[in-house]
Amino acid sequence: MAENSAHLAANLQTKPSLFEVVAAESLSGTFYPAFKRITQFLVLRNPDKFGFLERYYDEIFLLANGVIQNYYLKNHGGTLSEVFYGLRRFSTRTNDFTRKDHIFALFCSVILPYLRIKADRIVSKWKEALRDGARVPRADLKDFLIRIHGISVGIHECLKIAQYIAYLSSYSTSHTPLLRIANQGLTYIQEEEGVEWTWRNLLRGQLKLSTVLSEVILKGLEFSAFFIQFLQWWQTEAQHTDLTSLPTPDFPVIKQDFNYHGVCPVCLGKWTRPTCCAISGYIYCYKCIVTAIERTGICPASNYPISIDDIFLLFDD
Question: Which of 104, 107, 231, 302 could form a disulfide with 252 if both were Cys (CB 3.0 to 4.6 A apart)?
């Protein structure tokens, strides 16, 4: 009884700051785009060998993320990003982490982001089809669902801000609406006493080799979080680089003997919503160039790296 009371008091006195819980949440959101960038690099290097990674990336990431998060929730009581910042989850009702709490945390950290990505992708396709002015089946219904999606995202973000304020003001022990619904919160991981990790203890057999190997792998995974954050920062900086500060590239040499005058280099048809690439100067259909950027990140005609910020629509009055 006294031990449980002391543990409860420790949780109440060691409430993580808002910056720590937000940092853990932000780190969790960088895993998907960072690993996708690595996947795109492999696909560009060898499309025949690694092409399946692009087609089934969401499902592969879902499986890998599920295995990793399940291990950390089972053994450390928190997700990878939470354990990285020295945090774990606990029930605000029982001050424990039950099987039910484990399942809910796994659903929120693995299944829910997967469903959100799929929903955003479907909505983006509907928006693109409606912008192109093409005949879209059930256009009114899809337009209504797009509006509902936008409203729901806005409401969720407002609730997150309100929950942050409640957490910062000590009116709540949960920093997100989902954690509050599940009656869960975050606290610091209590250090456990164990055998000291030294070569002498390892050679004496006081440390199991399997335990050492698993810890090395997991510590390496946690260390890679630094690399993932750096990769995300690098990508963000690259997208905001001033084009005037870069050297002027040579005029692209096209090996194909084909004249793209008046046609899109991708679909080879008349432009639909003509869109110019600021890097190479070629004009594409809006849908064609956006799809190419999402898939490869390069200009199809010149093979120069481009982003969505490097294109602009052309209007013929």
Answer: 302
